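WARN no homologs supplied; continuing
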Amino acid sequence: MTHSARRIGRTLALVLPVVLVLSGTLAVTSVPWAGQSTESQMLTASSQNVSVRATSRAPQDVLRDRLLAELQQKDPGTVLTHLQREVEARPSLARHCMSIARALGRAAVERLGPTRAQTYSKPVCDTSFASGVAQQAQGS
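OK structure emitted
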């Protein structure tokens, strides 16, 4: 009796995990949200009227967008001064200063033309504004 009980126990120990894995896999693939049936929506989170939380934007992206908007109303010299003050106030933005100044240079060319935009060049962020002006002037 003991021998046959051990044999049954070993068989169950080998077969039971396989059966559980297969049944779990089949159960997951047969739910309505797995992609086959689009008619019924089981999950309310997948509903279209659920509000989506806004993703937070990086500080350098916020600053660049704000300065680009400001450039539409003010001269590039003023905007570059504001960039320099922001970088001095928040040193973590210093590594993004060059790319922001380059974007400002390209936007200044769009607004003022290459010759006039170049007159506003300042040594902010290692002359990146002038680099952006030159890149945009070559591209246009």
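Residues 29 and 35 are 9 Å apart (CA to CA).
OK
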